[in-house]
Design brief:
Layout (H helix, E strand, L loop, with lengths): L12 E5 L3 H13 L4 E6 L10 E5 L5 E5 L5 E2 L3 H12 L6 E5 L7 E4 L5 E3 L4 H9 L4 H9 L13 H9 L3 H15 L8 H4 L1 H10 L2 H11 L8 H9 L6 H7 L3 E6 L5 H10 L4 E4 L3 E5 L4 E4 L2 E4 L2 E4 L3 H8 L2 H7 L3 E11 L13 E3 L10 E5 L1 H6 L2 E2 L16 E8 L11 H16 L7 E5 L15 E14 L5 H16 L3 E3 L10 H15 L1
Parallel strand pairs: 1-2, 1-14, 2-10, 7-16, 14-22, 20-21
Antiparallel strand pairs: 3-4, 5-9, 6-9, 6-18, 7-8, 11-12, 12-13, 15-19, 15-21, 16-17, 17-19
Helix pairs in contact: 1-12, 1-18, 2-18, 8-9, 10-18, 13-14
The structure holds ligand LM7OVKF4.
Catalytic activity: protoporphyrinogen IX + 3 O2 = protoporphyrin IX + 3 H2O2
InterPro entries: Amino_oxidase, FAD/NAD-bd_sf, Protoporphyrinogen_oxidase, Zeta_carotene_desat/Oxidored
GO biological process, one term: protoporphyrinogen IX biosynthetic process
């Protein structure tokens, strides 16, 4: 990374806006790199962690139920996950890290068919035959045969749906499969999401080979090089964590697909925040009302403070209001989607269909979907098929029989753009419909007990065999959408920040960083902290 950003002077001040994982890790790296810098974190709420939130419910029988209210697993292929593991090691939380093997049952993924059945994404010959025979790929195969003969078009960003319609001559692949995948990452709409941002390799294949199939074959012949460690991680090892060895860590993680934290992902922001206590000035309940990066001033409530650098990790639409700068407002504005998350817990394993265990299922755009369901995570399977990584080597594939079921319904996303976001009893009705339609869980056979942020479950609940706990939250504007034109916007934001503000402000978080995942946000924090330190 070529640094054009001016360094913070000795004993300088940095303001971090937001105590989510982006603000915390940025402060953590900066603190390690430059202990002389005085860091102030402004957080409008009273807690750290942002979208990462783990809830513990105490039951009367002495047991505990952990519910993840936001992100919960981290993919090992992501460089940011290696970084997170090293931070957790430094903070003494190694015992929290649980890993899932790649060939684990809990790594299986499903698509919801129009007849409300789960169709396995192929993981064996049998499931491949079933997948191909399901009808889901009929028009896809037709489109693929003609794909090499379709002409390529002048390069201009377009939506994922437009790209595949052009290459395949129909929408079958997009509507039946790709739309589901992007429901499971962005909760987004393939008709809006940018192919350049989401599938740059596909765009490149078309550009250089004129066809995706021809390009893929050429790539196979030339072979692919293994991933190299990014420069930021090398600098991290040199400047922040000299005992870290990412190559060794990669070796240890061979065969492991994802990790989770035993007491919930919130353990991570909590541990980082605890390590910063005493050396960083946390201002909880502080509403920032105005920012002027050209003078470094931050207005909070009624006072104004001056800083050498401002790090914003908040929603960029909110940020643009704080900047009160029309030119920035236009480029910073992004579409965000809201996701309704419903955590469901039963004492008996009655939700996840027998023989269809796995990570969960996704709902493609072609599915008739009145309730706007995007997908469902099988949390109890993930829990049952993960082992501590650094205590004992993983002995083999865990296959604990689940004595309970825990799943999370992910609802809304881009579907809510064209409809009213439901509230209160309507949300509960939608959840009931999903439970009945897909899982055959009916209010007549089960006792459905709802919890929302305004009405929490009582302390020490006594849970009966037929009780179904349902805890839901609406995460408003939680995922920015990398829609058509996003790359251009991102480049413009970066050049305006340099020309107007001399880079005295930088952006973290999901909007204009390295991606929407937690590991992406942590990598972005590291990259920018290295730049100004
Ligand atoms: C149904 C909705 C969602 C599910 N997860 C997310 C949403 C909106 C959020 C999410 N999922 C992923 C990321 C990226 C993080 C990262 O890559 O580090 C985010 C923000 C990862 C992801 N999840 C699925 C896929 C295919 C991916 C990308 C790559 C991979 O891990 O293979 C699948 C998936 N997500 C959800 C379900 C139920 C599901 C599959 C069955 C939930």
């Amino acid at each position: 990374m070529i640094s054009k950003v001016r360094k913070v002077p000795v004993n300088g001040r940095v303001a971090v806006i937001g105590a989510g994982i982006s603000g915390l890790t940025y402060s953590y790296f900066l603190r390690k790199l430059r202990p002389d810098i005085k860091i102030t974190i402004f957080e409008s709420s009273r807690r750290v962690g942002g979208w990462i939130s783990s809830r513990k419910i105490d039951l009367k029988d002495g047991s505990e139920v952990f519910l993840e209210k936001g992100p919960r697993t981290l993919r090992v292929v992501s460089d940011g996950t290696l970084l997170i593991i090293d931070i957790l090691k430094q903070l003494g939380a190694t015992d929290q890290i649980y890993g899932m093997k790649k060939d684990s049952v809990a790594n299986r993924k499903y698509l919801l068919t129009n007849t409300n059945e789960l169709l396995a994404v192929p993981y064996s010959t049998k499931t491949a035959i079933r997948f191909l025979g399901s009808g889901i790929v009929n028009d896809v195969l037709k489109g693929l045969i003609l794909e090499p003969f379709r002409s390529k078009r002048a390069q201009r960003d377009e939506s994922v749906a437009q790209f595949f319609r052009r290459r395949l001559g129909n929408d079958a692949l997009t509507n039946n499969i790709i739309s589901a995948i992007y429901h499971g990452i962005y909760a987004g709409d393939v008709a809006q999401l940018s192919v350049q941002s989401l599938m740059p390799k596909m765009v490149e294949l078309e550009k250089t080979h004129g066809s995706l199939l021809r390009g893929a074959m050429a790539k196979r012949k030339s072979g692919t090089k293994g991933p190299v460690l990014p420069d930021t991680l090398i600098q991290y090892s040199q400047k922040i964590s000299p005992n870290s060895s990412f190559e060794e860590l990669k070796d240890q993680l061979k065969g492991i697909n994802l990790i989770r934290l035993q007491d919930g992902l919130e353990t991570f922001p909590n541990a980082v925040a605890a390590s910063l206590k005493g050396s960083v000035d946390f201002r909880f309940g502080s509403e920032v009302t105005h920012i002027d990066p050209s003078t470094g001033s931050v207005k909070v409530d009624n006072g104004v403070e001056k800083f050498d650098h401002i790090r914003s990790t908040i929603n960029t639409n909110k940020l643009s209001e704080l900047l009160q700068d029309d030119e920035m407002k236009n480029v910073l504005s992004l579409d965000y989607v809201s996701v309704l998350l419903a955590n469901i817990y039963t004492k008996k394993p009655v939700i996840i269909p027998e023989g269809q265990h796995g990570f969960g299922f996704l709902v493609p755009k072609s599915h008739p979907n009145e309730e706007c369901l995007l997908g469902t995570i099988f949390d109890s399977d993930i829990e049952n098929y993960t082992d501590p990584i650094f205590q004992n080597a993983i002995q083999g594939q865990f296959s604990k029989t689940s004595t309970y079921n825990k799943v999370t319904l992910m609802i809304g996303g881009h579907f809510y753009n064209d409809r009213n976001v439901p509230s209160g009893k309507i949300i509960e009705k939608k959840i009931k419909n999903i439970l009945q339609r897909i899982f055959d869980i009916r209010g007549t056979d089960y006792n459905l007990i709802f919890e929302n942020p305004a009405e929490l479950f009582p302390d020490k609940m006594a849970l009966k065999a037929n009780d179904v706990l349902i805890s839901y939250n609406l995460h408003e504007n939680c995922i920015p959408q990398y829609n058509v034109g996003y790359e251009q916007k991102k480049a413009l934001v970066s050049s305006l920040i340099a020309s107007k503000y001399d880079n005295r402000i930088s952006l973290g978080g999901m909007a204009f960083g390295e991606g929407v995942g937690v590991p992406d946000c942590v990598m972005s924090s590291l990259g920018h902290a290295l730049e100004i330190a």
